[in-house]
Write a structure and sequence with these properties.
Blueprint lengths: L1 H6 L1 H53 L5 H8 L4 E6 L14 H10 L7 E7 L21 E9 L5 E9 L7 H41 L13 H48 L3 H29 L5 E4 H11 L5 E2 L6 E4 L1 H19 L4 E6 L3 E7 L26 H4 L4 H11 L3 E6 L5 E8 L5
Parallel strand pairs: 6-8
Antiparallel strand pairs: 1-4, 2-3, 3-4, 5-7, 8-9, 9-11, 10-11
Amino acid sequence: MTGRVFDSLRGQIVLLTLGALTLAQAVSLWLFVDERSLAVRAALGAEAAGRAANVAHLLDEAPEALRGAILRAADSPLVRFAIDATPAVDHLDHGDEGGVEARMRHILGQGDAREIRIELHEAHGDLLPLASAADEPREGGLTRLELTLSLALADGQWLNVDTRFNRPPLQWPVVSTLSFGISAALLLVALFWFLLSRLTGPLREVAAASERFGRGEAEPDLPLKGPRELRHLTARFNDMKTRISRHIEDRTRVLAALGHDLRSPLTALRVQAEMVEEEDLRAGMISSVEEMQAMVETTLAYARGMSEAEPREDVSGRDFLAQLRQDMLGGFEIGPGEDHRISLRPRAMRRALRNVIENAQRYAGGVPRVTLCGTAREHRILIEDEGPGLPEAELERVFDPFYRLEGSRSRETGGTGLGLSIARTILRAHGGDVYLENRPGGGLCAVLVLPEVAKG
């Protein structure tokens, strides 16, 4: 079932949309985490820079005796202040692209040109700047940032500030996030399913109508609904169906009129042939007239086979074959096999089967065997004979109208050459087909294919 859903246009578009949204959310989350990290780094760096600048101000203004007290007051478990003869930062390249120095310059005043050195990087290991911080609770798995500042004091010494702080972890409430994601996904699926139904629904209707029309069923015009492109497609399908139906009706009407017009002169020729005194000549003329009449009738039958609108019936395949065998006075035997329910047009299918079976009797002799078999998608009727078979090049040509393998052109030996053509027309009107193949052990097998008609 899942495979069928995602094999459909609607399922694939919904899946593609959800995938795109998931990817977009993942990229947004990554960008958010990175921006948050930068913001936290900037805020903590600015706070440390402001504190260091203020301490430097106090040290420059305070007496030498008070410097120790100022440093002790400024120290904290995570920040250590010290006055040394040399700077702790031994290079001039800023690790924060100058943001911390700008903050310190602003606090110290624009006229203060003292040297400031800054180093900002991720700290490795669990050591904290101060020994007194050893008893502080430590959170595992957190990234530590280390900021080292060296500020030149007025007396030539350096104020070295060493601070470490934990970058706050990303707060991610799992339950609320999952509930939001599931709710959003369900809403999106429902919305897209509804919207895409307006797209795929008319497409399915056009496909189903095409199949029914191809089987020769009367099909009303489809309603125009859905987006503009689908309304245009449905309208063109309706126009095509109307033109094809009109073309078939016109051709059938022309053939019927032609057959009706030919009956009168053929009847007159038959009457005149009966008046001929010479027996051989009279017999030849009557035979020719009868052959012409038979060709006219079979031509009309061929046309009716293409345009007949007989309703379908759901019948038992073996019962149908048994009734046909009774009508043909035992003209074939029914092979073993399971029974199948087949949807067909009974009169047309009897005619098609009769034509193929009579063709096997005429050219192969003996009693052909008719076997019913099938799968979940189609039914097959096999008509097998014990004759000589056919050359491979002739297996398809025998379905051409008026084509006969027998060269005498006699109706008694070769028929009119329309039997197999009519059978194929009927089978194709059912949505199936008929073809011939040589049997490996000799003889010919006619395969009549009828597709399974979907219910509803």
